[in-house]
Design goal:
By secondary structure, the protein is of the alpha/beta class. It has a domain of 291 residues: TIM Barrel, CATH 3.20.20. It is built from 16 helices and 16 strands. The strands form 5 sheets. The protein has an 8-stranded parallel sheet. A two-stranded antiparallel ribbon has the order 5-6. Strand 15 and strand 16 form a beta hairpin. Helix 2 crosses helix 5 and helix 8 runs parallel beside helix 9.
Length: 425
């Protein structure tokens, strides 16, 4: 497979979906779907009545028909739910490996990649946000069943490389969890056996490329060498810069003798030329893709961001929202969105999606789950930092709302979105 010069980035925003990935991939560049919230996105699309019949088409191709049928029957609402009706909840990921959630994750991963790859031969990748590990392997397996070309994970999740190999060979795979407050892979292992899907699913699958993403060439080098499986490329994420990294940083990347892409530079031809001249393979471009016509970001909010960014001077600020795992996600500050202080003040706090929850060790040695988006009292009772949680927005609910899939809250209305921002906004 020819190496793409452009990778459609996800910015850890979790809103890259199949229509955009397909549009990018048909040009020969690397289209990317986000796997992090896919089970919830798929369940809510079904409850919207499967507009366009796209999921029906994908579900009909899933190799284990009984599994696809169960997921469909659990969530599909003919004609779509009423506007004022809340979405039915999906189970939160946990070590219990609930069979229904596992099946939903596998089918969701399959459907998203199937639709992104349908009707063309361009490359498609799936990206998982940093440390969202509990639902990762089942969703990844679904993507593998659909023939995904590349898997993009954070350097800290380099162990996924070995998981890809094992899943492609039809064997059980595991990912070691990281407990809050620990820098080591000190938690229990979360495992997934592809044989539980059964129903004629292939036991041997083509192996995709694995790409690691990180913010330091030195750390990426360490993670590549520590990975227990093959890594075929790296992405260096740059912050607060319009130029190339230092020559020493570029030298470390070249020493890996792997293809490398740079993320965070302006999406211009001159940026691409500079990367190629420096020995790189290409650019990761995020913001322009998030706000293009093929993106599934809610149209009204997309138009509002455009309007503000075009004013002179531009009336659009960017702030960074912390994910529960600790990394920062750039968000556009727009009145009426989830970052608006007035909206934040009147919204009741809770964690009811739970795909980005932190894992921590309780006093009795068992593993617990916490999220800075839940009530500060609850988060503090679980050992979380109340100061860090006091202004925390809910990333899961905010990103789902950005896709037009916001939950309906009695007495509040529809969840407000978190709108991704970045290098070109």
């Amino acid at each position: 497979m020819e190496r793409p010069r452009i990778i459609q980035g996800d910015l850890d925003a979790m809103v890259a979906t199949w229509p955009l990935a397909k549009a990018v991939a048909t040009t020969g560049q690397l289209g990317v779907v986000s796997g992090t919230l896919l089970p919830v996105i798929t369940a809510r699309r079904l409850q919207m009545g499967d507009p366009g019949g796209h999921l029906r088409r994908a579900f009909d191709q899933f190799p284990a028909a009984d599994v696809a049928r169960r997921v469909w029957e659990d969530f599909f609402v003919p004609g779509g739910k009423a506007t004022e009706t809340p979405f039915a909840a999906t189970l939160q990921p946990s070590f219990d490996q609930n069979p229904a959630l596992t099946e939903l994750a596998v089918v969701a991963g399959f459907a998203e990649v199937f639709l992104a790859r349908e009707g063309h031969s361009g490359p498609v990748a799936i990206h998982f946000s940093e440390q969202a590990r509990l639902p990762l392997l089942p969703t990844l397996h679904g993507a593998l069943l659909a023939g995904v070309d590349s898997v993009i994970v954070a350097g800290e999740d380099a162990a996924v490389a070995s998981g890809v190999v094992r899943l492609c060979e039809g064997e059980e795979a595991g990912v070691r969890m990281r407990l809050a407050g620990s820098t080591a892979e000190s938690g229990p292992e979360c495992c997934f056996n592809p044989q539980v899907i059964g129903g004629g699913t292939p036991t041997e699958l083509p192996r995709p490329r694995v790409l690691l993403i990180g913010d330091s060439a030195e750390r990426l080098a360490t993670q590549v060498h520590a990975a227990q499986g093959p890594v075929e490329g790296v992405i260096l994420r740059l912050e607060n810069t319009t130029g190339l990294p230092s020559e020493s940083e570029l030298g470390r990347l070249r020493d890996l003798v792997l293809p490398f892409w740079l993320a965070g530079l302006p999406a211009t031809a001159s940026s691409l030329d500079a990367v190629l001249t420096a020995g790189g393979t290409g650019l990761v471009v995020s913001t322009p893709f998030h706000y293009c016509a093929e993106s599934e970001l809610a149209g009204d909010w997309k138009a509002e961001v455009f309007a503000r960014s075009r004013q002179k001077p531009a009336r659009l600020a960017v702030e960074f929202v912390s994910a529960p795992a600790g990394h920062q996600v750039p968000i556009a500050r727009v009145e009426g969105s989830a970052v608006d202080e007035a909206e934040f003040a009147r919204r009741e706090r809770f964690c009811d999606v739970g795909f980005l929850r932190q894992l921590y060790q309780r006093e009795d040695g068992s593993v617990g789950y916490r999220c800075p988006g839940e009530t500060v009292t609850c988060h503090h009772a679980k050992g979380g930092d109340p100061a860090a949680a006091s202004a925390q927005r809910c990333l899961c609910n905010g990103m789902l709302a950005a896709l037009g899939l916001g939950q309906v809250r009695p007495g509040y209305g529809v969840e407000r979105p978190l709108l991704p921002a970045g290098e070109d906004l």
